[in-house]
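This part of the workshop introduces the protein records we will be handling. The question running through the whole workshop is how a given chain folds. To make this concrete, we reproduce a full record directly below:
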Amino acid sequence: MTLGLSDDDRDIRDSVRGWAARHATPEVIREAVEAKSEARPSYWSSFAELGMLGLHLPEEFGGADCGLLETAIVAEELGRAMCPGRSCRPWWYPQSFMRPGEPRRSPAWPTARCSVA
Protein backbone atom coordinates (compact mmCIF):
# COMPACT_ATOMS: atom_id res chain seq x y z
CA MET A 1 0.00 0.00 0.00
CA THR A 2 1.41 3.36 -1.00
CA LEU A 3 0.68 6.46 1.02
CA GLY A 4 0.71 9.69 -0.90
CA LEU A 5 1.45 12.90 0.94
CA SER A 6 -0.88 15.85 0.58
CA ASP A 7 0.42 19.39 0.17
CA ASP A 8 -0.17 19.95 3.89
CA ASP A 9 1.77 16.78 4.74
CA ARG A 10 4.68 17.92 2.58
CA ASP A 11 4.58 21.33 4.30
CA ILE A 12 4.85 19.62 7.69
CA ARG A 13 7.71 17.45 6.43
CA ASP A 14 9.58 20.41 4.98
CA SER A 15 9.04 22.50 8.09
CA VAL A 16 10.41 19.80 10.41
CA ARG A 17 13.25 19.03 8.02
CA GLY A 18 14.28 22.70 7.96
CA TRP A 19 13.97 22.97 11.74
CA ALA A 20 16.10 19.85 12.24
CA ALA A 21 18.77 21.16 9.87
CA ARG A 22 19.04 24.31 11.99
CA HIS A 23 18.82 22.70 15.44
CA ALA A 24 20.08 19.10 15.22
CA THR A 25 23.53 20.05 14.02
CA PRO A 26 26.45 17.61 14.12
CA GLU A 27 27.69 19.43 17.23
CA VAL A 28 24.37 18.93 19.04
CA ILE A 29 24.29 15.26 18.09
CA ARG A 30 27.90 14.73 19.15
CA GLU A 31 27.26 16.49 22.47
CA ALA A 32 24.28 14.20 23.17
CA VAL A 33 26.22 11.05 22.28
CA GLU A 34 29.17 12.01 24.47
CA ALA A 35 27.09 13.21 27.44
CA LYS A 36 27.55 11.38 30.75
CA SER A 37 23.80 11.50 31.41
CA GLU A 38 20.72 12.18 29.33
CA ALA A 39 19.43 15.74 29.52
CA ARG A 40 16.79 17.76 27.73
CA PRO A 41 18.21 18.76 24.33
CA SER A 42 19.20 22.39 23.88
CA TYR A 43 16.63 22.72 21.10
CA TRP A 44 13.68 21.57 23.23
CA SER A 45 12.05 25.01 23.56
CA SER A 46 12.18 25.67 19.83
CA PHE A 47 10.74 22.18 19.22
CA ALA A 48 7.84 23.04 21.52
CA GLU A 49 7.35 26.46 19.94
CA LEU A 50 7.04 24.72 16.58
CA GLY A 51 4.05 22.90 18.11
CA MET A 52 5.52 19.43 18.06
CA LEU A 53 4.95 18.44 21.70
CA GLY A 54 1.18 18.53 21.30
CA LEU A 55 1.08 17.45 17.69
CA HIS A 56 -1.58 14.76 18.14
CA LEU A 57 -3.54 16.30 21.02
CA PRO A 58 -6.90 17.96 20.42
CA GLU A 59 -6.81 21.74 19.94
CA GLU A 60 -8.93 22.19 23.07
CA PHE A 61 -5.99 20.84 25.09
CA GLY A 62 -3.39 23.00 23.34
CA GLY A 63 -2.50 20.50 20.63
CA ALA A 64 -2.48 20.59 16.86
CA ASP A 65 -5.14 17.85 16.44
CA CYS A 66 -3.02 15.97 13.89
CA GLY A 67 -3.41 12.31 13.11
CA LEU A 68 -1.13 9.33 13.01
CA LEU A 69 0.15 10.13 9.51
CA GLU A 70 1.31 13.63 10.45
CA THR A 71 2.89 12.30 13.66
CA ALA A 72 4.70 9.62 11.64
CA ILE A 73 5.96 12.24 9.17
CA VAL A 74 7.46 14.27 12.01
CA ALA A 75 8.96 11.17 13.66
CA GLU A 76 10.50 10.13 10.34
CA GLU A 77 12.09 13.55 9.84
CA LEU A 78 13.47 13.57 13.40
CA GLY A 79 14.98 10.15 12.78
CA ARG A 80 16.32 11.24 9.42
CA ALA A 81 18.14 14.11 11.15
CA MET A 82 19.26 11.84 14.03
CA CYS A 83 17.74 14.24 16.57
CA PRO A 84 18.98 13.22 20.00
CA GLY A 85 16.76 13.09 23.03
CA ARG A 86 13.24 12.02 23.75
CA SER A 87 11.52 14.05 21.07
CA CYS A 88 8.82 11.47 20.33
CA ARG A 89 7.99 10.53 23.91
CA PRO A 90 5.36 13.30 24.43
CA TRP A 91 3.30 11.79 21.62
CA TRP A 92 2.90 8.38 23.22
CA TYR A 93 2.21 9.15 26.91
CA PRO A 94 -1.12 10.94 26.39
CA GLN A 95 -2.41 7.92 24.50
CA SER A 96 -2.81 6.17 27.85
CA PHE A 97 -5.41 8.80 28.83
CA MET A 98 -7.56 8.15 25.78
CA ARG A 99 -10.42 5.71 26.16
CA PRO A 100 -12.14 4.38 23.06
CA GLY A 101 -15.69 5.60 22.68
CA GLU A 102 -15.47 8.35 25.29
CA PRO A 103 -15.71 12.05 24.54
CA ARG A 104 -12.50 14.05 24.57
CA ARG A 105 -13.52 15.88 27.74
CA SER A 106 -13.32 12.64 29.67
CA PRO A 107 -12.00 12.42 33.24
CA ALA A 108 -9.30 10.28 31.69
CA TRP A 109 -7.77 13.34 29.97
CA PRO A 110 -5.16 15.20 31.99
CA THR A 111 -6.10 18.69 33.11
CA ALA A 112 -2.77 20.21 32.08
CA ARG A 113 -2.47 21.73 28.65
CA CYS A 114 0.36 21.18 26.24
CA SER A 115 3.09 23.73 26.86
CA VAL A 116 6.68 24.67 26.16
CA ALA A 117 7.83 23.86 29.71
Summary: The chain has five helices and no strands. Residues 105-117 have pLDDT under 50 and may be disordered.
